[in-house]
Amino acid sequence: MRADALRRTVAAAAVAVLLAAGGCTTGGAAKDTDGTSGADRAGARSGTMRGITLPSWYRTDYDSPAADRYLRGIRATGARWVTFTPTWYQNRVTDTSPHTTEETASDTSLRHIVGRAHGLGLKVMIKPHIDLPGDEDRADIRPRDRAAWFTSYRRFITHYADLAADTRTEQFTVGTELAGVSGDTAAWAGVVRAVRDHYDGPLTYAANYDEYRKIHFWKDLDLIGIDAYWPLSARPTDDPARLRRAWRPIRDELAAYARGQNRRILFTEAGYVSQRGATTAPYSWTVSRRPAPAEQAAAYRALLDSFTGRRWWAGVCWWMWDDWPDSGETPVKLAYTPRGKPAERVLREKWGAS
Question: Which of 157, 223, 271, 325 has its CA 20 to 30 A from that of 56?
């Protein structure tokens, strides 16, 4: 057996162990057409990721005195996973080399918070990001020299793969929403091979909801990752039933795709601001200036009602728990965080928090 095939086998075994412990795994082929038996659903329900992202915006965020409080708050929702997002930046979409800045979480702080999370009984996914200045979209990255960019990217991503291995991080993401380069299948296969040389755990890629069908290297990964920001309504609504109806055709499409790829689907991100109209554009931080916590809560409920228990669905990591003190540009009452809002009560109910 080739070394990379052996690593895939080891990763698949690790995935199975995580599922048995309430983690997130591929679980082999998705054999149902979308429904499953009651027994299958009961088993799947306990084997999906219940996660929340805690992003960083500055090098010392993960060292913040607020870190323990945030992690305890995440665990109190019934979450069993937390995702961390160290971020490098490039100045222009055509640049060939991302780099650290003062907004990049330090390695020391990342190691520290992974240890804190493990100490609280939370599993960890590390999901490194590449970003651009201001409001520019990372999906627009199209380097002028792609070979040079991928060389730099492998250096970036294997750095974090080493850190994930050293900290016994349970799962790793090899890229996030890089639609401008994610069509370079051979280059990404090389990225995945490089990561597997450094890290033995389960791997995914976080494709945007309008990108995942354009990815042709899922076979090299253990999970299909989707950032699930599908618009669900043409106008604001806080009716969960209406939102569940909107999810049905998307769910059917995803079930078929999971079967075709022989992989389970993880929502590597999903989230809604607590603003009126959040369900019309879940990817937007600035839908309106009118608070709408009921609309946010309805969206949380509809997603969990629609997907929980589907054998092919590997769970969700919500975006996001909170901004760090004094760092948030969006007022808490309008932000993605569910903390202290009706959406948090939905999580506690659905995830069985004590």
Answer: 223
